[in-house]
Amino acid sequence: MELDDGVVALGESPRAAARPTLTSSPHLAALCAAGTTHIYGDTADVGELGALITTGSGAIFREVDGNTANQPLVHKVIARYLDGPEPATWARRLRELAPHAGDRNVLVYAIVCARIGNDMAHAFAAGRAWQVSLQLHMGLGADAERSKRVGRLLRRMVPSGVVKVPFTPHHPHCFLIARDLEREGIPVNFTSTFSARQAVAAALLGDVTLTNIFMGRLNQGLRADLLGEHVDLEAQRALRRLRREPGVKTLLIVASVRDWQTFVRVAGCDVFTAPLDAVRSYLTQTEIPPAEVRSQLETSYADRLGIAADVLKALGAERIARLYDVEPTLVEFLIRLRKSPDYASLRDGDRLFTMFDRAGFGDVFYAPTTTEWTELRKSKLPDLASPLTKRLPLDTLYSLLADADFEKYQEEMDAQIEARVGS
Q1: Burial zone of 226 (CB within 10 Å; 0-12 exposed, 13-18 middle, 19+ buried)
Q2: Which of 414, 371, 400 is nearest to 174 (CA)?
Q3: Per-residue pLDDT tens for 213-249?
Q4: Pseudo-torsion of CA 277, 283, 284, 287, nearest 10°?
Q5: What is the maximum alpha-carbon separation in the chain?
Q6: Residue 208 in contact with residue 220, Cβ under 8 Å?
Q7: Could you tell me which of 239, 184, 179, 189 has the C-alpha nearest to residue 209?
Q8: What is the C-alpha to C-alpha distance for residues 284 and 353, in angstroms, rounded to an integer?
Q9: Beta-bridge partners for 189
Q10: Dihedral of CA 226/227/232/237: which sign?
Q11: What does residue 113 show for φ and ψ, rounded to 5 degrees?
Q12: Pairing of strands 38-42, 22-23
């Protein structure tokens, strides 16, 4: 389509590709030796990442081979991408190609994300396939076909790009969006995920390239010491078992890292994406030398979760355990569903919910009321006194909170785009 080709042309970055040499960081190399395959910076800021991974001689750390960007991170840099004459040119070109299109904010946002991704790749690829995860506009969640269309555009604009599809418990077709993009050869990072069972569902139903555990939010929200690390390790072990199944390839991202100790505590997990302050603290700490970093894939923190007593009393140990325990019956259901002709041709998210519900797993999904969305937008962490917290599975709740938080940032950026490019 002419509009799609036009958007792709606008997403190209004018930045010339740099040719830095690669060097190794002993601390990061120790993680790779323990089994980690990728280390990403959790940032949309080229300068910020360059300051971290560039040495005094101008070389960059080879172990950092990508970055991840979501709405809060793009929000930090979008003003500089909307500055200058180019955004008005984008809007004018979009009006020429599709005068009555209602997706202009969505497309401008995709162009900004593509510019970020290409700027990152041009600065740091150094001959490698720099993997940059770029999240779909949050306004696309209700429309599977529009989501897939913009996902295709992002991949065309950024050839090394990975499309971030958020898990939306209120839109079960998110699994179908991920599945269909992967079928087209477009790698997906299935995000807004918080539990081992969600990771298993992403692997078996979406066949996604990557999925996440936002472990720092688990520890912060439930005032725990090692709960997030334990969930990560249990999810990692579950995915390793599933990768024995034909066609299962999903890697786990340890996300929302808050402390440098996390790198050591879950060393060997497939992928890390971390805020740059956490990476910097790990690189500069002297407590654990690289030679002492070992794989923790056989480690259990079950007896050291350190959950605050009032949180444990309010939620109960069984509900918290559902973050890291995966019911064998759920795995069996997902494998059967994955292999069924019905799922292969499924296009209806409501029908997918019905399949889950009949199997006894309908609580993976939840569609909040308008009043409940207002409550969810107050904080990205659970309110222990809220009726929703008392009623919903914790992973479903956390995913809804993450999506509500991302939507707030999206709305602010849409307002910036509207103010910059006009109507």
Answers
A1: buried
A2: 400
A3: 999 999 999 999 999 999 999 999 999 999 987 789 9
A4: 110
A5: 62
A6: no
A7: 189
A8: 47
A9: 164, 210
A10: positive
A11: -60, -40
A12: unpaired
What are the chain's domains?
2-421 (3.20.20.70)
Torsion, Cα 104 105 111 112, to 10 degrees, reads 160
CA 109 – CA 112 distance, rounded (Å) = 5
Structural tokens at position 242: 């599933």
Identify the CA nearest to 162 among candidates 218, 98, 209, 92. 209
CA distance 290 to 29: 8
Q: What pTM value is reported for the model? A: 0.96
In contact, 65 and 131? CB cutoff 8 Å: yes
> pLDDT (tens digit, 9 = 90+) per residue, 31-50?
999 999 999 999 999 999 99
CB 160 within 8 A of CB 121: yes
272 DSSP β-pair partners: 39, 254
271-325 tens-digit pLDDT: 999 999 999 999 999 999 999 999 999 999 999 999 999 999 999 999 999 999 9
116 neighbors 134 (Cβ within 8 angstroms): yes
DSSP string, 369-404: -HHHHHHHTT-SS--TTSHHHHHS-HHHHHHHHHHH
Q: Alpha-carbon distance 71 to 243, whole Å?
A: 31
Q: Are 160 and 129 in contact (CB under 8 A)?
A: yes
Long-range contacts of range 303-307, CB-CB < 8 Å, 24 or more positions apart?
Answer: 304/225, 304/226, 305/224, 305/225, 305/226, 305/227, 305/230, 306/224, 306/225, 306/226, 306/227, 307/222, 307/223, 307/224, 307/225, 307/227
Backbone phi, then psi, for 55, in 5-degree steps? -85, 175
Residue pair 60/54 in contact by the 8 Å Cβ criterion: yes
Contacts of 298 (CB under 8 A, 6+ apart): none
